[in-house]
Fold each of these.
Amino acid sequence: MAEEVSLGEVQETLLIPLYGRARDARSSHSILRDDMAVQLVKDIDYDFTKFTGPSLGGAVLRASIIDGYIRDFLRQHPDGTVVDLGCGLSTRFDRLDNGRLRWFDLDVDDTMALRGRFFEDTNRYTMIADSVFSSTWHDRVRERSGPVFLVSEAVLLYFPEAQVHGALSELAQAFPSTPIAFDTGGALMMNSQDRNPVFRQVPARMQWICDDPAELEQLGLEFLDSRTFATPQPAVARTWPRRHRYGMRALRWFPPVRTYKLNLFRTVAA
């Protein structure tokens, strides 16, 4: 029997990238090969077919770029810890597990209640029901010494600037000298949300506008790298079908492509 969904407005948006990854897995030139996403879509009682448009493929490209950042970290720190803040129904742990890392998936109560129907904790994988804007989970992650990588994908965008800046400042203080990856959207992209087919199907809207990620250094972050769908890491680009590699490059000046960025920072606050 399929699992029913009861999620808040922002939380419901997690179903968009899930469906995007499932569609990618069924394609002949899959980027992520996320067969688990296919099974999750089958097992959840929800009309995923209402989601259409380029955001589905974009969710796959976004995930692959962020995967690239984490893979680089794990090559240097194979025993490191990764914390996915606002994980939704991500299957990133299964994609990137090297048999040695420690992984925490964190999201709010209703999301983790749904996630708990399909995933289980292990000795190296832990689910935490909490918010990226809370500090109560920090000590649980810091109990294990060693390098940490923080990642937040398609989460911070849905909240006001002041709240996002506060959370980033707090993370910089709590986890010094720690890499953190997250996405940002410029005004041109944010102002076109109502023209995006997937957003016609959900009530939530993104709020945080960030045209220049480098300006976030004032929050205790060191700006290391930024990618768009037109400029993925070379190793990541090689995993994309030709239509994505060259198609995104041709669209590099298109506002949603040019102003949506996947960024890597390192916290610097003591």
Amino acid sequence: MRVHQLGDGVPEIAVVGGIHGDEPCGPAAIERLVAEDPDVARPVKLVVANEEALERDTRYVDEDLNRAFPGSRDAETHEGRLAAALARELDGCTTFSLHSTQSYAEPFALCDTVDEVVRAVVPSLPVDTLVETDRFTEGRLIEHPHTVEVECGLQGSTEAADNAYWLVRAFLTATETLPAPVAEEESNDGLVGLAGDAEEATNEVDVFRLLDPIAKPPADRYEVFAHNFERVEAGEQFATADGESFTADEPFYPVLLSAYGYEDVFGYAAENVGTLT
């Protein structure tokens, strides 16, 4: 685990990347921010978590770190010990955790439950979707109080790394750590100009709550036909496994739905529970 700090004092704000070693977008965003060394209004801790897995370009060394919390100093696995160390490092911090996915190209946010931190932060992020994971958080960092997680884009893509950087800037603005970020946009004459600030960029965010995992049987070939966050109607086919068709018993919204993202589930069924502004 590698820890950087911007500003003096005891941080109450933290950003974490590299929970999974095959998701380099978070560490890339952190290194970019460290290289810039911006002036901050309050100290912030920047953590690259699973360095050993990152070096191996593998999801984990012994077990999934994002299933190993709270961990233990005496755990038999690398990730079990790392989970305990990371939890100590983040104690007392409002935390922003960066991930990427194989199932969805656009950034979206996740939380355990919608609390005051989520309400204050998420509408200021460049996302239009929030997933409330609720009862699917066992062993995950998202159980840590006042933690917001983001999926930054497709795993291994340059877009995910760029998204991660701007998501971190927006989070640090929302927590009054950095001044409002300035985004670049191309004008009609091809010149790059400056666009907006965080207060002008607040969003209305659709909120989904996970209901159940969608089981995936062993097979050689999978296909998915539904699109994440788009309603699947009762009786509609949403996937196949070696030609076996899977149809919805009742309407649902798919979340993290993909053919090969998980070993034993296609993704999750969710309900739309409203908006956050």
